[in-house]
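Example 5.3 — Origin recognition complex subunit 3
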Amino acid sequence: MKDQVINEACYMLLPKDIKSKKKHIYSKTQDELTSKCQEIYSEESSKYEECYFPCLMHGRETELSRDYRYMCFRIQSNQLKNDINELFETIHDNMIVSLSVFIEQNKHWKEENEIPTCILLLGAYFFDHIGLYTCIEAQLNANIYGPLINLHVRRTPDMKACFKQIIETCIQFGRQRNSDISTEENPEKRQWSIYCEYDPECVVKWYEEAILQGLINQDEFRLVIFLQEVEGFDGNFINHFITILKKMHERVPLLLFIGISTSVEIFQDILEKKSLKALNIKYFNTKYLNDSPDIAIQKILVSSKHPRLRLGSYLYDILFDMYQKHSFNIASFLSAIKFAMMSHFFSNPISIVNYCDSAHSELISHDHLECIRSLPSIKRFTEDLLDKGDIYSAESLLNDDYYFRNIINTLIHDIEEHNRKLDVSISFLNIIQGKYASSVRKKSLSWIYGKLLENNIQQNLDTILNPIKIMSSIDILQFIQEALTLKDIYDQFPDLEGFYKKIFDIVESSEHKNLIDISDNEINASNKTEEISNKANSELNDDVINSEFYNIRNSLYQYLQEIFRKYFVSPMTYPLHELYYFNYSRAYLDAFHPRIRAAIDTALSLPSHYLSCNYEVGDKENEDNLSIPSLPKICISYRLFLESGFLINVSDWLTAFIQSASKGNDKDDKQDSEEYLQAEFLQSLEELRYLGFIKPTKRKTDHVAKISWMR
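Solution (predicted structure tokens):
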């Protein structure tokens, strides 16, 4: 057990890419069935190689239901993967667009003393370095004429390895150009010099030779060097490397990209002044960190094209709290959504209910209905029926399967319709919050979504709708025009377009009146009395127009408040919400944030959970006996450790250990010798110190102290 940390194992089942066809496919409609078959399965593909899901409900689940549950998981998993890729593209868009301008400006050779340098500020908590680097490489390959060299500390840790990579990439680029020209023009075979692998001068020699042989265009050529995660390189190496590149740039046109994962200050502290002067730096930052959770929620949960399992209130609160205090990135959100989907389909037999065309499907058996009846939301629904005095409906729900299947169809339709309206309302509120100029008063989408799950959104509705009270007529027109682009907005907010027309008429009449007033003032400028009279009439008309606008704005505020109070009810209060919202936070925490202290204590106290030994859990006689030979010696030391105080005398600990470990064995046994047991004790003592249970103390030289968190 030395140099090992005992922990609980976690297994995750990841789906393979869908390349096979299944005979039995059930979907909500025949159109969806056809589209799924065309999109995911092909006529030439074979059947599933193997279904990795077990038959649940103590084996009473049919193989057909199990296979369909597995198929639903694979479909949803691939759809989630596509949405996550779109999320990454959205987050990368701002930097890629800015980089395209920089690349366009520096793609051609210029007489310049400094090396054009692009600094990519990713930040310590940026979660998709590889994806962003891939997008940047694709952008460079599409717009830059020349080789692209990626340097990372794992592959190129020193100067020799870096220039070996640079020279090999340049020679490969030259050979590719040579083969292209040879196939087109069929010239004589070109002779290439043999280059040294580590000499920077070889790069210059290759460049000059390639120009002489007509392989590259000198005006368009750029040698692009991409230093990824520059903090991994040594500071002296970076300065020396930039000095060499500065000398090369006088003869070879270079373009330098540097990825920073920490901060600019740390990078500037690494570089010397002469290195900074050699670079013409342009900074490009990723999207502001606080916007990342809002983008993820908008793309994955709210505006996704594929309705799927979502996070419940408990799990969402835990993830949001971890984001604010620890992780500062959305990787935890994405991993939680993946885990929720895997756990939901793997261990929940009723996960197929809302994916069937009807609750009367042959896939849903009587055992499935009994599992649904045991859900907490269905139990509350039954109790509500009893409270209302509808005893017949409650009794039929519990005893009549056909009646219960009809109820399930109705409940599924209600919660799906409610989720659709919630998505529109959340997007609408997000547009309203975007009108705040100050980020202090603005409520983020992640905050709104959390309050909605907790069913506390209505208490904060006045605060959320406050921007409408301070909007001007032009701002309200822009806001309504943006809101009307949302999907299904006319069904949920039918009078919104009417408010837009009323305010638009007011703005139009106000502009027309101002033009008339200007022309009248020019005509009657000579008459002072008429000028004063016209000014008073103009102010009176302005007051009338403003009063009319204020009334319409207040009516719009009250209308939106009424609609939101109607629809903003937490979906966690609906029956059968367990089919749509994964709320088992303990399962997620055990898988991604295991209780290490409890795992170590269990392993040392009850080793039979982890090891093959004769120690039987629950046997009181064995539990009280410290001299079981099959127990590891560290477990005996740990049992004695638990019985000791804050300061432990090592000599007394050794004596008790020898008595416990040698009891019941023959004296002639080698393992019972005092020297051997003393060595075992010292090893177990060191293992306990390594695991963080004890530490040396200066108070007494022959004692050790317990660590505070284990007291």
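Remark. Residues 63-105 form the longest helix (43 residues).
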